[in-house]
UniProtKB/TrEMBL annotation:
PANTHER family: CELL SURFACE PROTEIN (PTHR34819:SF3), LARGE CYSTEINE-RICH PERIPLASMIC PROTEIN OMCB (PTHR34819). It comes from the Bacteria. Residues 62-173 form the DUF11 domain. This is DUF11 domain-containing protein. Residues 26-38 have a biased composition (Acidic residues). SUPFAM superfamilies: Bacterial adhesins. It comes from Shouchella clausii. InterPro entries: Adhesion_dom_sf, Chlamydia_OmcB, DUF11_rpt, Fim_isopep_form_D2_dom, OmcB-like_DUF11. Residues 39-60 have a biased composition (Basic and acidic residues). Residues 24-71 are annotated as: Disordered. The lineage of its organism: Bacteria, Bacillati, Bacillota, Bacilli, Bacillales. It holds the Pfam family DUF11.
């Protein structure tokens, strides 16, 4: 006997056991042949964004709408898998802090949860000028977020600071590189 079946959504990367029961009138214990079916996930496709927001003005700075030397900015990087029933293996978001900015210790958050700056058992760290968030395997299409604060250093007035993040997974052909440019005032 042969048949076809459709696998319901949500089983990507799982193994489904299929067991048939063969009953014959003169046999007390029916045969139960089975097989395991590995459900291969679809290929993922990511969508990533990056933004910077003026978080706090430094003493003496009066331009409420634009960042100036000494002000604190908050960077937010978001990504998501746009293909249901696909898998991103070992998703990471990383960001090298550009020249002219200084990371504010203790401000790193992964999915809204504060993490330590140390490379330890939590989902993020800051090391050698780079912030990193680890998200593990992603099977859904929910947004994942990395955020952190920086201070604008002296000598940056009138400059444009471009910041490029890297969103990657073990099965990405090419990482996403969302970017954000911030104009430092006065211009």
């Amino acid at each position: 006997m042969t048949f076809e079946a459709t696998i319901d959504a949500g089983y990507s990367g799982e193994t489904i056991e299929n067991v048939a029961v063969v009953e014959v009138p003169n046999i007390d214990e029916p045969d139960e042949p089975g097989t395991d079916v590995d459900v291969d996930p679809k290929d993922p496709k990511s969508e990533s964004e990056k933004s910077a927001a003026l978080l706090e003005k430094a003493d003496g700075n009066t331009d409420e709408d634009n960042p100036e030397v000494g002000d604190t900015l908050r960077y937010t990087i978001q990504t998501r898998n746009t293909i249901e029933d696909s898998l991103i293996k070992n998703l990471t978001i990383s960001d090298v802090i550009p020249e002219g900015l200084e990371y504010v210790p203790g401000t790193l958050k992964v999915n809204g949860e504060a993490v330590t700056d140390e490379e330890d058992d939590d989902q993020g760290h800051y090391l050698d000028g780079k912030v990193v968030g680890h998200f593990g395997d992603v099977k859904d299409t929910e947004w994942r977020t990395l955020e952190f604060d920086v201070v604008v250093l002296p000598g940056q007035a009138g400059k444009d600071i471009e910041n490029v993040a890297v969103v990657d997974g073990d099965n990405f052909e090419k990482p996403d590189e969302p970017r954000e440019e911030v104009e430092i005032y006065p211009r």
